[in-house]
Amino acid sequence: MRRLAIPLQGAQMLFVAFGALVLMPLLTGLDTSVALFTAGIGTLLFQLITKRQVPIFLASSFAFIAPILYGVQTWGIPSTMGGIMAAGVVYVCLGALVKVRGTDFIHKLLPPVVVGPVIIIIGLGLAPVAVNMALGKSGDGSLTLVPTNTALIISLVSLCTTIAVAIFAKGLLKVMPILAGIIVGYGLSLAFGIVDFSVVTAASWIAIPKFVAPEFNWHAIAFMIPVAIAPAVEHIGDILAISNVTGKDFMKKPGLHRTLTGDGVATIAAAAFGGPPNTTYSEVTGAVTLTRNFDPRIMTWTAITAITLAFVGKLGALMQTIPVPVMGGIMCLLFGSIAAVGLNTLIRNHVDLSEPRNLSIVGVTLVFGIGGMAFGIGSFSLTGISLCGIVAITMNLLLPASKHHKQDVASH
After folding, report:
1. What does the pLDDT average to over 248-267?
2. Where do runs of H (alpha helix) occur along 102-217?
3. Which of 192, 261, 262, 302 is most exposed, with the fewest beta carbons within 10 Å of its own?
C-alpha cells in the first residue's frame, strides 16, 4: 500500500500544478503536450543535479509569458526557444558564481530596488492582452472570437471563481485556484455553446508531442537573457520557502548553486524540445505544506505522470478547446498578481522611494516598460522587459549609493 501511495501522491501534485502548467503554453501558442513533457524531463534533471533532496516540481514559468509572446510574433518559435536556452545558460552561470563567490553578489547586483520594478513590468506589460482576451478578442485585439457580452460573463465568472477558491477554499483545493477557474469557466462555455470539439474528435489517443528544434538568433538571445533576472530571484524565494516548510536548509545542502544550475539545465532541456522555460512551482510547495509529506520521490512520480500524459493526444487537443474568455478572466488576476509580487518586493524590503536614487531607478524602469520605450542600433533593438532589466541594473551600479543603502549593505 505504501508503494502505491507515493505514485498516487505524485499524480495529485501534478493535478495541483496542471492549471498553471498548461495555461502558459495556451497563452503563448506553444504546445501543451510538449509543456507537460518538458516539465517532467526538467523536474527529473533538477532532481539529478540536486541529488533528489528537494521536494519541488518544475514547470512553465509565467515570468516568460510576455517575452515569449513577443518573441514568437517577432522571430517565430524556433528562435524564441534559442533565446530561452540562453536564459537557461544564465541560470547555470549564476549557479557557478554562487559556488565560487557565495550569495552576496546576487544581493548587490539584483537588490530589491532593481528586482521589484522589473517584476511589476512583467505583470503590467501584459494587462492589455488579458483585457482583450476577457472581452473575447485575440490578444492584440484585432479579432473578435466570442461575442463581447457572452465573453464578459464567462471571463468574470472564471475570474471570480479563481479569487473565491484562492481566498475561501480549504485544504488541497486552496492551492488549485487556476484549475478551479478553468473548470468553472469551461463549464459555462459549454452552456453557452461556444466550445468546438472537432479537434478532439480528430485527435488520436496516443500521439507524439509536436516538438520544435531551437534556432539561434542573436536578436532573440539578447532579448531573452535579461528576462532571466526575475525567475532567478523567484527561484531563490521558492528554495527559501520549501526550506522553511520542511525545516531543512536547502540553500546549504544541496546548495543554492546546485538548485540554480538544476533550474537552468531544466530550462535548457525544455527549450531544446520546444517547451516553455521551467521554474520551481509555488503551488506545489503550497500542496507540500498542506500534506506535510516531504519525500522527494513524490516529485519523481509527478514528473513521470506528466511525461506519460504528454503522449495522450486527446488531452492536448482538449486543452486547445478552452475558449479565450476563460483564460482572459484568469489572466486579469494572474498578471496583476505578478505585478503585486514586484510591489511587495519593494515594500517588504523597505525600499525608500523618497530617496532620489531609488525613485529614479523605479520611476524610469516603470515608464520605460509600460510606455514601450525602445533603444536600437541598426537592426538590433531592446524593448520591454529586457530593456527594463538592463536599465535598472545599470542605474543601480552607476548611481551613487545613499547613506541608508551603504549602512544596510554594511550591516548585511
Report:
1. 93
2. 104-109, 112-124, 127-134, 148-168, 177-192, 198-202
3. 192
pLDDT in tens, 120-163: 887 787 788 889 999 999 877 888 999 999 999 999 999 999 99
What is the structure's pLDDT at 407? Answer: 52
Q: Contact 83/71 with Cβ under 8 angstroms? A: yes
What is the SS3 string spanning 71-121? HHHHHCHHHHHHHHHHHHHHHHHHHHHHHHHCCHHHHHHCCHHHHHHHHHH
CB atoms under 10 Å from CB of 201, counted, come to 9
Q: Which residue has the cell 536600437?
A: 376
Question: What is the value of pTM for the model shown?
Answer: 0.82
CA 65 to each of CA 2, 126, 128, 197, 380: distance values in angstroms, whole numbers, following the listed order:
39, 8, 13, 26, 22
Tally Cβ neighbours within 10 Å of residue 211.
14
Of 192, 200, 287, whose CA–CA distance to 241 is shortest? Answer: 287
